[in-house]
């Protein structure tokens, strides 16, 4: 349904999207995972039609997304900002934003009522939005993007800055939308959100997809290995140097920063060898944890840095 | 088109939901007009000074003192002074109680000394608690003294005869002696009448007959002159606030969201221009109606005023559309808009009469909407259709809008 080919966009010298390509089918919920500056918002902005001066093609339902204005009726956007009018009621906002699409007015009213129920704001629909909490505003922001029943829903970090209850509610809505057949692209830097919500995950950094697939596909990248997290008073360079000759014997250094490093080991028997090398190199280790492989480990392996970096 | 009207409807609904800013901007010019009118306007009849309370103590009780008393009794003097004749002790008591502005004491033998052409003295006791009113009484008595002195000196011989008449008992008075005295007096009166009738010096009251000027400016006329200037100044403030949506929607992400819908940039720009235009016209009409109801302001034919309001509001909407296309953010818009509006208002005559301004200021004034709106409103008051102000406002408004549209289109798309 959606085919993105070689999408490239730069801001001056900075390459925000680097020959980005992706395909998406109806009902798929794609989680775009990446640290700040990975290019997630740039991608959403281009798909939404609010960013120009890029190269590459985007085909949606067999047509050029940017040449056919009518396709905007099939696209739903939930921006990062609370983009609605605070002085109006939730219902007025839904009617206004929904009215900008080619939806009959009577349908909009009915649909607005349904969505207020869905986002649990039915009792507050006639109240000015300025009285709402952050979580309620986020839910309304999401509802506005769904009013015209889009075939493709783009959500740019829809759970930023809200409480757990509101977050769970929004993720539930996203799952429901996907289950109803709408394709969803959902950007975040919360690993847990994509693990629980998305049918497909793409790890993105520096404008490119580093790896994509289901959660299991991605975990397989790290392999059936244990992950060892080492904390101590050491610098990254001597740490990497100390373990250099173990690389071919079932020990893989996933990431190393000053004071914190992650390794993948084929068997727990490898751990004493690792510790021995570190003591010999006079590197002080204060803590060590053994973990099962997770999306976080995959991310570390692929990008060499934490999502929060 | 449907989407353009939807955005317009939404903008107007938002104004109605949060009308405080507009209400304040409508109330301020009305309040300022009221204050200026009250402070600088002509005084109403009932606001004139009340008669000055004066106490008069007459120790003489003769012809001259009665003459002074009767001079206070003529109509014109009655409006100025409220005279109470009393004795000196009661007079002092009342003065100490602050019941009068001044006390005039006419001494004993006042008439006889006058007739003998001896110097005589009035005493004027002034109330120290009052600033101006006792001085008015003092001046009046001084003038009275000058007049009496002049009359006594001019009719010196006759006055002596008069004194003789007063002092001589009736049974020993010789009427034969009165004939020549009266004959001399008649001659002097005839000679004096040449100067008195008609008077050599006369006072003529005349009011200006300048073109367009009314014979007398009432307070309502003054309001009619002040309110258009105030109205156009606050029209600029209100429309500026409305048009700021262009930039605040952009900063809040609402503009981006709108551009993800089938709404076209031109539809959005047209809706915003219409929003500023319609709001501006509504505000001007409300101010005009309020001015008529509260201050009895006359605007002239309503249809003409509607045309002028439409032209001024369109100019203002177009100007602020361009302004918001050029500024970077809402802080910059806030920082620049107020000085621009104040400059327009000063040079354009909203704050002072353009005729009282230096030539250079007046030359700059013709570049402002204030000047053309004020001139147009004055023209309508005199019954004319303000074709030139309307053409200038509408024409320059179209030019501004033509510049604003491409500039805004660029700002809408990142």
Helix amount of chain B: 55-70%
Oligomer state equals heterodimer
Count of helix runs of chain A: 10
Largest sheet of chain A: 6 strands, mixed
Q: Which strand order spans the largest sheet of chain B, edge to edge or round the barrel?
A: 2-1-3-4
Question: Gap between N and C termini of chain A, in Å?
Answer: 34 Å
Tell me, rounded to a whole number, the average pLDDT of chain A: 86
Radius of gyration of chain B: 36 Å
Report the order of strands and helices of chain A: EEEHEEEHHHEHEHEEHEHEEHEH
Task: Explain what you see.
The complex is a heterodimer of chains A (about 300) and B (about 425). Chain A is an alpha/beta fold and about 300 residues long. In chain A, about 35% of the residues lie in helices and about 30% in strands. In chain A, the strands form 3 sheets. Chain A has a 6-stranded mixed beta sheet, with helices on both faces. In chain A, strands 2-1-4-5 form a 4-stranded antiparallel beta sheet, with helices on one face. In chain A, helix 2 packs across helix 3 and helix 7 packs across helix 10. The mean pLDDT of chain A is about 85. With about 425 residues, chain B is mainly alpha-helical. Chain B has a 4-stranded mixed beta sheet, sandwiched between helices. In chain B, helix 1 packs across helix 13, helix 2 packs parallel to helix 13 and helix 13 runs antiparallel to helix 18. The chains are: A alpha/beta (about 300), B mainly alpha (about 425).
Question: Topology, pairings included?
Answer:
The complex is a heterodimer of chains A (309) and B (414).
Chain A: E1 2-11, E2 14-24, E3 29-33, H1 40-48, E4 55-60, E5 63-64, E6 75-78, H2 90-99, H3 105-118, H4 134-146, E7 152-156, H5 164-179, E8 183-188, H6 191-197, E9 200-205, E10 208-213, H7 215-222, E11 226-233, H8 236-242, E12 251-257, E13 260-265, H9 270-280, E14 284-291, H10 295-303
Parallel strand pairs in A: 3-8, 3-9, 6-7, 7-8
Antiparallel strand pairs in A: 1-2, 1-4, 4-5, 9-10, 11-13, 11-14, 12-13
Helix pairs in contact in A: 2-3, 2-4, 3-4, 4-5, 7-10
Chain B: H1 2-17, H2 20-40, E1 52-58, H3 63-71, H4 75-80, E2 81-85, H5 88-96, E3 102-106, H6 110-115, E4 123-126, H7 133-154, H8 156-167, H9 178-196, H10 219-243, H11 245-252, H12 254-259, H13 265-295, H14 302-326, H15 330-348, H16 359-365, H17 369-381, H18 387-412
Parallel strand pairs in B: 1-2, 1-3
Antiparallel strand pairs in B: 3-4
Helix pairs in contact in B: 1-13, 2-10, 2-13, 10-13, 10-14, 10-15, 10-17, 13-14, 13-18, 14-17, 14-18, 15-16, 15-17, 17-18
């Amino acid at each position: 349904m959606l085919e993105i080919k070689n999408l490239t966009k730069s801001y001056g010298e900075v390459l925000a999207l680097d020959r980005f390509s992706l395909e998406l089918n109806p009902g798929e919920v794609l989680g775009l995972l990446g640290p700040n500056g990975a290019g997630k918002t740039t991608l959403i902005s281009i798909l939404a039609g609010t960013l120009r001066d890029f190269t590459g093609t985007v085909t949606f339902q067999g047509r050029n997304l940017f040449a056919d204005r009518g396709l905007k009726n099939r696209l739903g956007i939930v921006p990062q900002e609370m983009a609605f009018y605070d002085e109006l009621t939730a219902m007025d906002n839904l009617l206004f934003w929904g009215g900008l699409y080619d939806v009959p007015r009577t349908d909009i009213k009915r649909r607005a009522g349904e969505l207020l129920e869905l986002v649990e704001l039915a009792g507050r629909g006639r109240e000015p939005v300025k009285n709402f909490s952050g979580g309620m505003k986020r839910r309304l922001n999401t509802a506005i993007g769904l009013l015209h029943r889009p075939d493709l829903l783009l959500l740019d970090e829809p759970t930023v800055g809200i409480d757990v209850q509101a977050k769970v509610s929004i993720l539930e809505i996203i799952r429901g939308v996907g289950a109803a057949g709408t394709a969803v692209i959902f950007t975040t830097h919360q690993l847990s959100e994509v693990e629980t919500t998305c049918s497909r995950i793409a790890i993105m950094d520096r404008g490119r997809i580093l790896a994509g697939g289901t959660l299991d596909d991605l975990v397989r990248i790290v392999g059936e290995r244990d992950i060892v997290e080492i904390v101590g008073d050491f610098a990254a360079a001597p740490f990497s140097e100390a373990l250099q000759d173990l690389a071919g014997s079932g020990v893989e250094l996933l990431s190393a920063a000053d004071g914190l490093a992650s390794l993948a080991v084929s068997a727990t028997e490898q751990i004493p060898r690792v510790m021995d090398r570190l003591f010999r190199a006079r590197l002080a280790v204060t803590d060590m944890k053994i973990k099962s492989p997770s999306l976080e480990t995959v991310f570390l392996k692929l990008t060499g840095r934490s999502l929060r970096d | 088109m449907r989407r353009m009207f939807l955005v317009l409807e939404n903008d107007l609904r938002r104004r109605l939901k949060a009308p405080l800013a507009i209400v304040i901007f409508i109330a301020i010019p009305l309040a300022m007009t009221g204050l200026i009118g009250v402070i600088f306007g002509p005084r109403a009849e009932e606001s004139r000074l009340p008669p000055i309370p004066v106490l008069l103590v007459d120790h003489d009780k003769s012809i001259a003192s009665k003459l002074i008393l009767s001079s206070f009794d003529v109509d014109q003097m009655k409006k100025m002074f409220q005279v109470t004749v009393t004795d000196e002790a009661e007079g002092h008591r009342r003065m100490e109680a602050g019941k009068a502005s001044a006390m005039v004491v006419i001494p004993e033998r006042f008439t006889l000394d006058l007739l003998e052409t001896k110097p005589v003295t009035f005493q004027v006791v002034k109330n120290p608690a009052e600033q101006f009113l006792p001085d008015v009484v003092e001046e009046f008595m001084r003038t009275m003294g000058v007049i009496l002195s002049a009359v006594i000196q001019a009719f010196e011989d006759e006055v002596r005869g008069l004194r003789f008449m007063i002092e001589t008992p009736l049974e020993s008075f010789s009427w034969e002696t009165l004939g020549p005295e009266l004959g001399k007096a008649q001659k002097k009166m005839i000679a004096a009448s040449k100067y008195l009738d008609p008077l050599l010096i006369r006072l003529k009251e005349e009011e200006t007959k300048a073109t367009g000027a009314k014979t007398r400016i009432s307070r309502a006329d003054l309001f009619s002159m002040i309110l258009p200037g105030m109205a156009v100044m606050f029209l600029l403030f209100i429309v500026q606030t409305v048009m700021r949506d262009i930039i605040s929607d952009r900063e809040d992400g609402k503009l981006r969201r709108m551009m993800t819908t089938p709404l076209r940039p031109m539809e959005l720009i047209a809706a915003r221009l219409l929003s500023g235009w319609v709001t501006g016209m509504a505000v001007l009409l409300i101010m005009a109606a309020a001015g008529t109801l509260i201050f009895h302001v006359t605007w002239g034919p309503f249809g003409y005023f509607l045309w002028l309001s439409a032209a001024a509001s369109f100019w203002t909407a177009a100007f602020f559309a361009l302004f918001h296309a050029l500024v970077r953010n809402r802080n910059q818009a806030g920082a620049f808009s107020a000085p621009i509006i104040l400059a327009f208002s000063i040079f354009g005559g909203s704050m002072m009469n353009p005729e009282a301004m230096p030539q250079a200021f007046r030359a700059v004034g013709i570049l402002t909407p204030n000047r053309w709106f004020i001139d147009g409103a004055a023209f309508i008051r005199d019954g004319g259709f303000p074709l030139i102000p309307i053409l200038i406002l509408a024409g320059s408004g179209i030019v501004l809008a033509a510049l604003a549209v491409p500039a805004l289109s660029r700002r809408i798309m990142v």
